[in-house]
């Protein structure tokens, strides 16, 4: 690649779309829809039929069934536009002819800055994904305010009768069975995954009832790894990734006082590559509001020169919204 090419809009856009997001479990397992022109997200909440097909006599016309219950949702997408100034001396080396070490160092530094900026955007996608599974995505900045209600019923936001932090008396196994049954009865989906923080994983490992149940089958695993990977027929996924808000402290996507149970179709653990395959949710990407994007949906990046302070501004932009199509296939439960 010629040094100057790195700063061209097409090259920048191609580069930022290829940065991996493997540490971000939500968007790693969630399909990305990048074929939606404009900045409006539309999706259907799907309610599967819960009845049986009636028996018929041979030679009789087929029974006329009603269509699925479908609730059409429309929301304006969220907008992100993040930029950084790549300082003049870095760009001097980047533009220097030949393949000297300074030019190579500058190119790697620019790529590192773009990678970090892209990860910041993708972490915002991740934040929005887990907020969606709580039931609402609420943004209350000074300059931007909006709320997206995903229609998760109050019954799917239960509280354990005895909190799991009470490891001597809590019964997580009974709770999990009840919450799995709730998902199955209301959505027709098979629950597959339980997401917990390391703190909640500690509650499970120390829980008297869990330890007794696991003693014969998984005692060696608990002793060697200090965690549980299966419980009550669910993949147990320990996830501590998070973010640092401006002026705040580290905040996990999966908090220390709640757990998520979802039915995502693929019964493999997300850690083993299991993805959402049953249309539970996806992340819709629209067109960045930028004339140079040409109306093309998806991540977008461009750059331009600044005279003082000297350098190049590099921008990463995204119009996106996570959408939840089967809200009854989610439980967000308070456990501590």
Succession of helices and strands? HHEEEEHHEEHEHHEEEEEEEEE
What's the CATH C level? Alpha Beta
The helix/strand class is alpha+beta
Mean pLDDT: 85
Count of helical stretches: 7
Which second-level CATH architecture applies?
Answer: Alpha-Beta Complex
Shape: globular
Percent range of helical residues: 25-40%
Taking the alpha carbons of the first and last residues, their distance comes to 53 Å
Fraction in beta strands = 25-35%
CATH superfamily membership, which one? phage-related protein like domain
Total strand count, please?
16
Q: How is the CATH topology named?
A: phage-related protein like fold
Number of domains: 1
Structure keywords:
7 helices, 16 strands, 336 residues, five-stranded mixed beta sheet, globular, phage-related protein like fold, alpha+beta, 26% strand
Protein described:
By secondary structure, this protein is α+β, with helices and mostly antiparallel strands. It has one domain: phage-related protein like fold (Alpha-Beta Complex), CATH 3.90.1690.10. The protein contains seven helices and 16 strands. The strands form five sheets. Strands 1, 4, 13, 14 and 15 form a five-stranded mixed β-sheet that branches. A hairpin with a 4-residue loop joins β5 and β6 (145-149). α1 crosses α4 (101-134) and α3 packs across α4. The chain is globular. The model has no long low-confidence stretch (mean pLDDT 85).
List the helices and strands and how they pair.
Layout lengths: L8 H10 L6 H5 L2 E2 L6 E8 L21 E8 L1 E10 H8 L5 H34 L1 E5 L4 E5 L22 H16 L5 E4 L1 H9 L1 H18 L4 E2 L2 E5 L3 E2 L7 E2 L5 E5 L18 E5 L14 E7 L4 E14 L5 E5 L2
Parallel strand pairs: 1-13, 7-9
Antiparallel strand pairs: 2-3, 4-15, 5-6, 7-12, 8-9, 10-11, 12-16, 13-15, 14-15
